[in-house]
Amino acid sequence: MVLAAFSLVIGAEGAWVAVAPEAEQGEPQLAVKEMDRGGMDVAISLPGIERSEVEIGGEVYQQFTIPGGIETDEVGYPSLPAITRLVAIPGGGGAERSRGTRQLDRFARLRGSGHPSGGAVGDRWLCCRGPVLGPRGV
């Protein structure tokens, strides 16, 4: 598993940590940027994360969460903030990840016929100033 790296200046417990200085507290946004018969470009933006302290077994740990997001829960790995969104992919289509031109926007190229019919795929995106990561095998 490759992890996205990011740097933070952490203040008081329970603090909002903006990814960009002008970012306001809020949930991540997903928007369709472009769609045609060859596929669609989807942009996911993350304004920031929330930080808190958690005590486990007498040790204090830093916990990072995304408003409206989830945490990864694979045994043996750290609990990481993640975003889960359902995206309809036409039958026979697939998903491909790529980096956007802006540092804080990440784009996924979904290949298919461009029609909104077909199955839905749940995808998890890890975030913050690094490459966007999908679930294993995508």
Looking at this protein, list some descriptive labels.
Gingipain propeptide domain-containing protein, mainly beta, Gingipain_propep_sf, flat
Please give a structural write-up.
There is one protein chain. The chain is flat. It has strands at 16-18, 29-36, 39-45, 48-56, 59-65, 70-71, 81-88, 94-99, 105-111, 120-125. The chain has one domain. The relative contact order is 0.25. It is mainly β. 0% of the residues lie in helices and 46% in strands. Strands 2-3-9-8 form a four-stranded antiparallel β-sheet, with no helix packed on it. The chain has no helices and ten strands. This is Gingipain propeptide domain-containing protein. InterPro entries: Gingipain_propep_sf.
Radius of gyration: 16 Å
Helices and strands, in N-to-C order? EEEEEEEEEE
What is the residue-averaged pLDDT?
A: 63
Uncertain segments are 1-13, 101-138
Give the CA-CA distance, first to last residue. Answer: 12 Å
Strand order of the largest sheet: 2-3-9-8
Q: So how many helices?
A: 0
Shape: flat
What is the strand content?
over 45%
Helical fraction equals under 10%
Largest sheet: 4 strands, antiparallel
| Helix/sheet category | mainly beta
The number of E-state strands comes to 10
| Count of all domains | 1
Compact summary:
It contains no helices and ten strands.
Produce the secondary structure layout:
Layout: E1 16-18, E2 29-36, E3 39-45, E4 48-56, E5 59-65, E6 70-71, E7 81-88, E8 94-99, E9 105-111, E10 120-125
Antiparallel strand pairs: 1-4, 2-3, 3-9, 4-5, 6-7, 7-10, 8-9
